[in-house]
Design brief:
The chain is an alpha/beta fold. It folds into 2 domains: about 120 residues, Rossmann fold (3-Layer(aba) Sandwich), CATH 3.40.50; about 240 residues, P-loop containing nucleotide triphosphate hydrolases (Rossmann fold, 3-Layer(aba) Sandwich), CATH 3.40.50.300. Helix content is about 45%, strand content about 20%. It has 16 helices and 13 strands. The strands form 2 sheets. The chain has an 8-stranded mixed sheet with strand order 8-9-7-10-6-11-12-13, sandwiched between helices. Helix 4 crosses helix 16 and helix 6 crosses helix 16.
């Protein structure tokens, strides 16, 4: 006998409740329990269920409804939530997903779209298919040293962990001159060399218990070897397998690489969903950036996969951001402002920039970059749905 999932519909609109009831009865795999507008009664009903699907219309009393979504998703692990609204602004969608909603649908409902979402949830809740990884691998790269790659990777990873509250891995793939542990003042017991030598032993529990966790955050650090280790000892296949394992455990993986074009760096770039190509605004750095882009084009990387990030940016530079875009033939994704004293204080203390001055321009630059990265998937998907550019 097929398992039937108890379902509660929450809406102020009787017509919405009736339509959802009809759709659920037609779909059959979800057992319609009740329609409610009283959130307290709905909460008490959810509390009695081992597993449940909640469909909530947030069109009316939006704040109250979103607070309810946050409460039930944090308290009930086996509760899935589909949010509905007749005013599906992108920012509201992002907020709903960030606090725990599994899906967001626009009203009036499109039946085929609703059934597609129900099918996905049913398979997920009954073990009908393995959960698809939603991890995003982000590599911070430059073929020129001294442009601040490690600072960007470290601060971006930490801000992602703070903003999303999800598990984030920070990987140091610079086997000879890695600095991630120095930037965070860590002395980890395990490093990437050990992981690559023991791939058959690694799983989610192992990673979360052995990787160095940064203080009370959800950031986990996989450090470079404590001694000079030739990267050639490890094959591209082994590094790819490590990335596959990391994807199953973490929501975000941020990678700091060496500045070269060795096989290890290329492998990281190929395994990435997003590459931040870092440059500063001077002619030699921009020329190097051009060469990188030419190589990435030959490697077949999508244009959207590679994004330009300017570090140490000053508004009054002789070369403007617009000049840089003209030289590179590509829009700049983000600019991290120059703040030498705050950044050097953070590096010398072995702490993130936000620990030195969370209101500084450079700390806010990293925070807002992390917001852009974490929001971009939701924004892109919803913009397409809503027909926006």
């Amino acid at each position: 006998m097929k398992q039937s999932i108890p379902t509660i519909v929450i809406s102020e609109q009787q017509s919405t409740c009736e339509l959802l009831k009809l759709y659920l009865q037609e779909f059959e795999k979800f057992n319609f329990l009740a329609a409610a507008s009283d959130l307290t009664k709905a909460y008490n009903a959810i509390k009695e269920l081992d597993k449940s699907l909640i469909i909530i219309d947030i069109s009316d009393y939006q704040e109250q409804a979103l607070n309810f979504v946050s409460k039930i998703t944090s308290e009930f692990e086996n509760c899935r939530v589909i949010t509905l609204s007749d005013k599906p602004q992108v920012d509201i969608v992002i907020r709903a997903m960030r606090i725990g909603a599994s899906d967001f649908l626009s009203l009036p409902l499109i039946k085929d779209e609703f059934f597609e979402v129900l099918t996905k949830h049913y398979l997920d809740m009954t073990g009908g298919k393995p959960k698809k990884s939603k991890c995003r691998v982000i590599t911070v790269y430059s073929n020129k040293g001294g442009v601040g790659k490690t600072s960007i990777a470290t601060n971006l990873a930490l801000e992602l962990a703070k903003i999303t509250k999800e598990n984030v891995a920070l990987i140091d793939l610079n086997f000879q001159l890695g600095d991630v542990t120095t930037f965070l003042d860590l002395k980890p017991s395990f490093n990437i060399s050990y992981m690559l030598q023991n791939l058959d032993k690694i799983n989610e529990d192992f990673l979360l218990s052995t990787l160095e966790k940064y203080k009370d955050t959800s950031l986990y650090v996989l450090a470079d070897p404590p001694y000079f280790k030739p990267a050639e000892n490890f094959s591209s296949k082994e590094i790819t397998k490590l990335f596959d394992i990391l994807r199953e455990t973490f929501s975000y993986v941020v990678v700091d690489t060496s500045s070269g074009f060795d096989s290890k760096a290329i492998n990281a770039l190929e395994n990435s969903d997003l590459i931040f190509l870092v440059t500063i605004v001077n002619l030699p750095a921009l020329r190097n950036c051009q060469r990188c882009m030419e190589l990435f084009d030959k490697l077949g990387f999508d244009d959207d996969k590679v994004q330009i990030l300017i570090n140490r940016y000053m508004e009054n530079d002789e070369i403007s951001a617009e000049d840089a875009e003209e030289v590179l033939g590509k829009n700049i994704y983000w600019k991290i402002p120059n703040n030498y004293f705050t950044l050097m204080s953070a590096i010398n203390k072995g702490v993130p920039v936000s620990s030195v001055n969370q209101d500084s321009n450079v700390a806010l630059g990293y925070k807002h970059l992390a917001l852009m990265v974490s929001d971009s998937v939701f924004r892109q998907n919803m913009a397409k749905k809503l027909g926006r550019v």
